[in-house]
Each structure stands twice: as C-alpha cells, then as structure tokens.
C-alpha cells in the first residue's frame, strides 16, 4: 500500500509523562522525512501540537482541521499554513478520515477513542477500510487490546477484524506496519446469524 497521507488522532493534552510528547514529535519528524502529509486536529497544544511541530520542523506538509468552537480553546497551531476551520466536530472527524490513506493513534482520551471507533466500525461494516496503527507508548493501549479480546470472547467482535489494527511499540515501525495492510471482508448478515446460532 502506497501511503501519501496519514491522519493522526491524539490528545490535546500532553499527559503525565514526557515520553508521550517526545513520541508524538518523533512521529511528525518521521512522516516529514518520508514525504507523508500529516493530517491532524489542528491544535497547537499537547500531543496535537507536538506531532505538528515535529513535522513542520523537518519540512513536512501538514493539514490541520479544527472546529470553530475549539479555535481559541485548543489554540490552533500558528505554524500550520493549511489550517481548515470547520463548523463542528462531526465535520472535523469526517475530514480527518477522508483526507488520509491511513490512521495513526497516539495516546489520547475520549475524543481520540471516538475518532478511532468510527473508522473501526466502518471497516467492519465494509463502508471503507483504512489501516489503523496504535502507537503503544509505554504500554498505553495494552488495556484497550484486552478489551478487544473481551469483545471477541463474548462474540461481539469477530477476531478477523483485528487485522484492521496494528499495535506498534516503536514509532520507527509505524509506516511499515501500515503499508502491509490487507483489507478484510466486511461483516454480513450471515456472519451475525452464525453468532446467534452459537448462543
């Protein structure tokens, strides 16, 4: 898969460990060095600001997408030339997804998870499929992957859909993992009925 643009979902906060911000900055640097356009939520603070600054400091192309209500609150990154101000969060999320060939998820909170689950559910249904990489900085997403296993154990998620996701421990490996993505057949009525028959 030839990846030309990546959307990064991440926190507008920095978290309580410097490694989160350092990892975000390094991701931006790597994307710039590989000629991959960064698409992100437009903020200048937290991990959002770090990933954008990492790309900009190394000559990368950056597109920010931020809703009107958050322009002041998240302090839109002043160094991003391609800053798109949209009406609301829903439009922001749609554009973040539409603009990218792949998705990278850094540590974040509820907003980051909302963005992820929209892409993940769309992949299961077969509306579209984009490879997703979780950057598992300091084991941040280990518990989420345990939750996925709980979904599978109780037949609320088919194991094959985990092929849409990569858990990556090293920033340097992110792009390579995404490039080796293979689409997964979307869920059908028959798949759901099979699950019912086992209950």
Question: Would you give an account of this structure?
Answer:
Keywords: Cytokinin biosynthesis, Hydrolase. A seven-stranded parallel sheet has the order 4-3-2-1-5-6-7, with helices on both faces. The protein is α/β, with parallel strands linked by helices. The chain has seven helices and seven strands, in the order βαβαββαβαβαβαα. Helix 1 packs parallel to helix 2. It has one domain: Rossmann fold. 41% of the residues lie in helices and 16% in strands. Strand 1, helix 1 and strand 2 form a beta-alpha-beta unit.
How is the secondary structure organized here?
Blueprint: E1 5-9, H1 18-33, E2 37-40, H2 46-57, E3 62-67, E4 82-86, H3 89-98, E5 102-105, H4 110-125, E6 132-135, H5 142-153, E7 165-168, H6 174-179, H7 189-198
Parallel strand pairs: 1-2, 1-5, 2-3, 3-4, 5-6, 6-7
Helix pairs in contact: 1-2
* Rg (C-alpha, Å): 17 Å
Number of domains in the coordinates?
1
Low-confidence stretches: none
Helical content stands at 40-55%
Kindly report the spatial arrangement of strands forming the biggest sheet.
Answer: 4-3-2-1-5-6-7
The string of secondary-structure elements, in order, is EHEHEEHEHEHEHH
- The CATH topology label is Rossmann fold
User: Whole-number average pLDDT?
Assistant: 92
Number of helix segments? Answer: 7
Distance between the termini: 38 Å
Could you tell me the strand content as a percent range? 15-25%
CATH class category label: Alpha Beta
Indicate the CATH architecture: 3-Layer(aba) Sandwich
